[in-house]
Amino acid sequence: MILAFALAALATTAVIAPGLARRLGRNTGYPIAAVFLIVGGLIASQASGVLAGGTVAVDWAWMPSIGVDFRLHLDGVSLLFASLVLGVGSLILAYCPRYLEDNERHGRFYALLTLFATSMLGLVFARDLLLLVVFWEMTTISSFLLIGGTGRKSSLPATRAFVVTAAGGLSLLAAVILMSLAAGTTNISVIMDDPSRVIDSPQAPVIAVLVIVAAFTKSAQLPFHFWLPDAMVAITPVSAYLHAATLVKGGIYLLMRFSPLFAESALWTATLMSVGLVTAVYGAAIALKQHDLKSLLAYSTVSQLGFLIALVGVGTPEALAAAALHTFAHALFKATLFMLVGIIDREAGSRDVRELGGLRRVMPVTATLTGLAAMSMAGIPPFIGFVSKEEAFDSLLDAPGADWTGWLAAGTAVAAAGLTFAYGFRIFYGAFAGPTTQRGLYEPRPSFLAPAAIPAGLGLLFGLSVGILSPLINRTVKDTMLTDVDATLSLWHGISTTLVLSMVTILTGLLLFFLREPVDRLLYRHQFPATGAKVFDAAYGGALRLGEWTGAPTRASGIAAHIAWPLGALLVIGVTGVALWPDVAPPALPTTRPEDWAVVGVLAAAILALCLAKSRLTAIVLLGVVGFVVGIWFLIAGAPDLAITQLLVEILTVVVAVLVLRRLPPVFRQVRRSRTLATAAIAVASGLVAGAATFLLTGRRERSPAAGYLMSEAEEDSGGRNVVNTVLVDFRGLDTLGEVTVLAIAGLGLIALLRGTRTPETAGRDDSSLPPSDREGNMVIFQVASRLLLPGIAAVSAYLLLRGHYMPGGGFIAALVAGVAVAVVQLPHGLDRPPRLQAIPLIQSGLALAVLVGALGLLEGSFLRPMRGYLSIGAADLSLSSSLVFDLGIFLVVLGMTVAAIERLSRGVAEASHRPGPERVLELHGGDQR
């Protein structure tokens, strides 16, 4: 339960962060940092057991019908990455109060940063493939919001980051689907215990490529690297957390977690090693030419991530140990450097090394900390960066393949490390060496420096006593490769090949540093003709233009243009289906009764009259008649739920349509005869195709096994006798929740689109001032009648809601009845009475209630699993179910949608009615005064 509590604690903190920020301002970072430390302490309390070979697990049923559970797992790999998420996260949060402006609101920032930490922690704890994908996508979304939170200038970089990483998420989803099909389970533990399930599958190479693509997009590897430097538009705390210790390490974690499946694959090894090492050299070379310190660190991160991916690609236990150690080391020195660059930017007003210089004299502590972190990054003893680089060189020398493979890999790594040494020294020299250019600066507060000082000091401490980390690194490798490894980490291994390579690295770095001017000229002379960002922008712009071209035919204001395309698609599909249809079996049961022909006759007459109608209002009335007749037909056919829904929808449709029509001319405009013939042809053809499809698909098969099961077992399983309702709120509750969510989004969209239709000159105007001859202002009878009808309609609505589980009714139907009540009350008053029901709170509370009921189902074993009970009142036994509360949530969302439509559209009507005289008459008839 500790793992679940950790996630719940962070999620709760994210929810309350805006409230804290309103009271504490930028200092909100301190209590949230304390929460991170407490959660980290709880995780650390399990470390001894994990390092001894034990595990901490949570296993709750989530979707048991398909074998998907909410599984959390803490092993060595998870412990390593969780320590980075929580440890570095607490430091960043303690850094934020001094970095952020005091006069701005930061609730959104703190909430998103904590939500991101929750997502990352869930990612490294996830032990189910689908849960892994869920948390992976949560990191993508929350990071997008964090990157894009700095204003308009961050919009495009945030979009680039989101599109690239979201594409990687789709790749991971495809890999997870194929992997679960091959293994027959989504349980990662089961898959790792028997890797042959996936390895021997014919889809194994495809799965490997999909996992690699997902990791490359998240960890900014060529050719997906460009989003990371662009993301530096985010504020420094975001860059320090996401792009040093957490988000970009998500790809490393993914590759390490699935390494046992593909480590023996030549495709896996060759791809990771080649792309990783090329990215390491490329990123380091581009970093060396940067003048902006933050951009330099961004390309440095790209390079270091390539280094890590190459180590994972080697696939040996020693290489994974080196990757784990360097992951830890990189988080320490890169988080320090990002925070210190933020301090320099705050104090000096610039990050450009050409505008800085000599800061060591006015900011000696900052200079010292920067030097410590830069030396660790450069791989200078006795820092932890030196130890991790030596372990990496040693592992690359033993890379699988021909003898020259290891030397080539190690040589490439030395080149990348030499470039790293050079730009590490450039950071310090550019900002702190030379003459002092800004003598008015001073050292920042200790509270500003402390969060950066801690990881800088740890980089030195762990370098001197790196053996402390041996148990964690060994357990990480053991839990990754399921192979014992006895890596004894130490600062000094004696004279060895790796020591020679380290010396070559340092000499190469010094040479590049002292020859920085000719090196700069060389780097600027040879540049790629196009950057990744430009290629992305061109592709993204092309996709937008393609979408614009695709949607152009339906962009006309006329309804016919919108309807013609889906009807045309229906025609093509229908004709193709009829042409390819096999022999038609005779109906299993009679599908037509004599009374059906009577209904068809009435429908035909109403539709013909509708087609001939000249008045818009007449057309709407006839369309309502068609709907009512169809509803009666459903009732005759024995579908009362469907009939009631149809009738209520027709009532509200007519109401809404009339509200819209009041803003249009009363009669249809004249159109060309050719257009009439074309639309008539499309309508007749669509009707024939739909009729043929209905004829071919009705009554020609027996009842399906699922239908038979529901008819016989629904009451036993759910306690409800209304099978339709039990399907909606019990058996297929997740589908219903998704549909209600879409409806809620549509309702909020309607409110946003129609916001502002009320004009200032008509707001608050009193109808009592209108003359008695104005029909729009004299609706006393309607107003009185609405008061009499309201209690009865409300009672019917409540009755339908309560009985829905047992007889025709339910939340949707009850909400439609309540919507009729809203229309009856609102329309006579227009703008003069503010709506008593507010659409947005209704929608929000309904959706929240539905989700809450679903979450409570976890107590019974799975999300949305109904909880049942019985209440005895005298001789009566009442069956109670959480499905009723879920249905109440549906009721509130649908009612909110209805309130939004009626209230927003009635505003437009009321405005029009408040313009008496010729202007009103001309508007109704679509004319003007000229």
Automatic annotation (TrEMBL):
One of its GO terms (cellular component) is plasma membrane. It is a multi-pass membrane protein. Residues 126-399 form the NADH:quinone oxidoreductase/Mrp antiporter transmembrane domain. Residues 62-110 form the NADH-Ubiquinone oxidoreductase (complex I) chain 5 N-terminal domain. GO terms for biological process: monoatomic ion transport. The chain crosses the membrane at residues 77-97, 109-126, 132-149, 161-183, 203-220, 232-255, 267-288, 295-314, 320-344, 365-384, 404-428, 448-470, 490-515, 563-582, 597-613, 620-637, 643-664, 676-697, 777-800, 806-827, 839-859, 879-902. One of its GO terms (molecular function) is antiporter activity. Residues 676-760 form the MrpA C-terminal/MbhE domain. It holds the Pfam family Proton_antipo_N. It is found in: Cell membrane; Membrane. Residues 781-899 form the Na+/H+ antiporter MnhB subunit-related protein domain. Residues 602-665 form the MrpA C-terminal/MbhD domain. It comes from the Bacteria. Keywords: Antiport, Cell membrane, Ion transport, Membrane, Transmembrane, Transmembrane helix, Transport. Its main location: membrane. This is DUF4040 domain-containing protein. It comes from Phytoactinopolyspora alkaliphila. The lineage of its organism: Bacteria, Bacillati, Actinomycetota, Actinomycetes, Jiangellales.
